[in-house]
Each structure stands twice: as C-alpha cells, then as structure tokens.
Design brief:
The chain is α/β, with parallel strands linked by helices. It contains eleven helices and eleven strands. The chain binds manganese (II) ion. Manganese (II) ion binds next to loops.
Length: about 325
C-alpha cells in the first residue's frame, strides 16, 4: 500500500516571492534552452498572470519555442534575444542551473538585478537570490498554479491552458510517479476553467513530424540492450537531410517501454565534439545522480547532461555508469 496523500496540497510560495512579484514593474521571465512544454507552459502562464496583474513582463527563451505550443498566450512575444531590454527583476522557470538559461541571461547586464528561481528539479543548485524549489511537484506549472492561488488571482481559460500544458508534458499524460491526488484535483480545476485536456494532450504528446519519425527509424537501428540498459545514438550524419530536426524527441521514453529495460539512454551527437545524453528510468531506479555527476541534472526517472567526446566512446562509458545505477534504491 502506498501512503495516502492529502487531496489538497499545502505547497505555497514563500512570502518574499509574492512581495518581489508584487513590486516588480517589468519582470524578465526566462525559460530554459531546448524548451519543453513545461518550460514554455510555465513561462507563458507566469507571463500572462503578471500581465493580468498590470505588469509589463518580458518573456525570453534562447531557443525558439516549438510551433506545437503556438496556442499558448504570448507565444509570439517570446524573445530569443534580450539585448536592449531593461527589466527590474529576473525570474527563471524550470531551470535547475544557470547555464540552462542560456544566452538570454546576460550576467553583465542583469547580474545586479534580483534573480528569482522557480523550479521543481531535485538537482536544482539554488542559483537565485530567492529560490523556490519544490522537487515533489510534477511540473513547474504545478508551482505556478500554487503561485496563482497564493496571489489570490482567478484562473481563466488562457491561464488554465498554459498551466495544464506543463503538467501534461512533464507527467507524459499523468503517467509519472509524482501525479498525486492534488495534481488530479488541480487538473480538474483547470479543465473546469476551460483548459482543453484532449487538445493539449494531442499537441504535446501526439505531434511528431515525419522528419522526426525518420530520425527515430535511423536511431532505432542502433539500439542495444546491455543488461537492463537500453540505448541508441543519434548522429549528425543521421539527420543531415532532415531539415533542422536535432533531437529524437520522445525516443528515450519509447525505448524504456522495452520489457527488458530498466534504464534507457539516447546519445545525440552535437557539433564541436559534444554529446547530449538523455536518460529515463523505471520506478525504483534513479538516473538523476549520474546526470548530475556528468554536469547535468533532472529527476530520478528523467535526467540529462551534455558531455564532450566521440559519440561511440561516450555511449560505452556512460552506459557502464548507468549499469551501476541498476541496483534499485532501497
Ligand atoms: Mn519541468
């Protein structure tokens, strides 16, 4: 039997955070590079919330938000370049360390401004002046929901849609261990407020280009199972003719669906001798500490890092490390 969970969460932002948001006029909100639905969902939800409160928020993300998210508020206003803007507060959402903010955080210009960190990664390094980190939350958007409540702001369809987008993304459609009764309760409220669950699910989870599926096909040709660790590689050559597709999005979760697999990894060859590593683990296994030891971060069941080296060498070295994580947590 699992421990009973309260149906309502007691999670709330620190009062200093509410004060800082209330007194800001032009907050800069930054989502992490290679943004996913929780990064863009929490960026746009918070941006919209602050706009509705009469602020003049600036939304930024180094990498272009995927067009799948173009139904979210202010999607067209997300900046990839923050030159010339003059915020009075910086808020980082869904980033576990400062490098994830990428080039839109200019230390020279913004370093003297207060930096607020809002994140749910257990590997968060507390890089803000004020850090609100909730590793029990399934998504940063779950935290933005609690923030909305703490500010006594109402939900509306636009806000609810952005909030639910992050929750659906990070739980892969309510399938992860951190989907508590509170998350389901919140989801009901968001649907009540007008968030279209089935449309969001389709946009976020069932929305792949043919080029991406072609990349999956090529990468699947490289699948290997080594004890309980299943892995595949995605090379620069494999995607040369695929019109800008880089990551084999979703492939690592698909690999973990193999009955024989406990841990899955996808290695993506990047320019300049870098390899992006993406890990997933079944319940009872933890890949976050390996990602952290390699300079990355994440959650026990989903984590990643970027390392330098030749892709085949990186694969064999990292798979050896992952095999050591096969000892289940006690
Ligand atoms: Mn997230």
């Amino acid at each position: 039997m699992t421990k009973p969970q309260p149906s309502h969460s007691s999670i709330a932002p620190p009062p200093e955070l509410l004060d800082a948001l209330s007194s800001a006029r032009k907050p800069l909100i930054i989502a992490h590079l290679s943004p996913d639905g929780d990064a863009i969902g929490s960026l746009t939800a918070l941006g919209y919330l602050l706009y509705r409160m009469g602020k003049d928020p600036i939304l930024a993300c180094q990498d272009k938000a995927p067009p799948a998210f173009n139904f979210l508020p202010f999607y067209d206003r997300i900046l990839q370049d923050t030159q010339g803007i003059q915020p009075d507060l910086v808020i980082s959402v869904d980033s576990s360390d400062p490098t994830r903010m990428g080039s839109v955080y200019d230390e020279a210009r913004f370093g003297d401004l207060p930096l607020i960190v809002i994140d749910h990664h257990i590997t968060n390094v507390y890089f803000g002046d004020l850090n609100w980190v909730e590793p029990m939350c399934c998504a940063t958007d779950e935290m933005i929901y609690y923030l909305t409540r703490a500010l006594q702001e109402p939900l509306d369809e636009t806000l609810a849609t952005a909030l639910l987008t992050g929750i659906v993304t990070d739980t892969r459609g309510f399938r992860t261990y951190n989907v508590t009764p509170a998350v389901m309760h919140i989801t009901g409220e968001l649907i009540d407020a007008g968030a279209p669950l089935s449309i969001i699910t389709e946009r976020v989870l069932d929305n792949r280009s043919l080029a991406l599926i072609t990349l999956w096909a090529r990468a699947l040709d490289t699948v290997e199972l080594d004890q309980g660790v299943i892995s595949a590689i995605n090379t620069l050559a494999m995607r040369r003719d695929l019109g800008g597709v880089i990551r084999a999005e979703g492939l690592v979760s698909f690999l973990l669906s193999a009955q024989e697999a406990k841990i899955a990894a996808v290695f993506t060859e990047m320019p300049a001798g870098k390899v992006e590593c993406s890990f997933r683990a079944r319940r009872g296994y933890d890949v976050s500490h390996i990602a952290l030891s390699l300079g990355g971060g994440g959650h026990p069941p989903a984590a990643g890092c970027t390392v330098e080296g030749e892709i085949h060498t990186v694969r064999s070295q990292v798979v050896a490390m992952l095999k050591q994580a096969l000892q289940p947590e006690s």
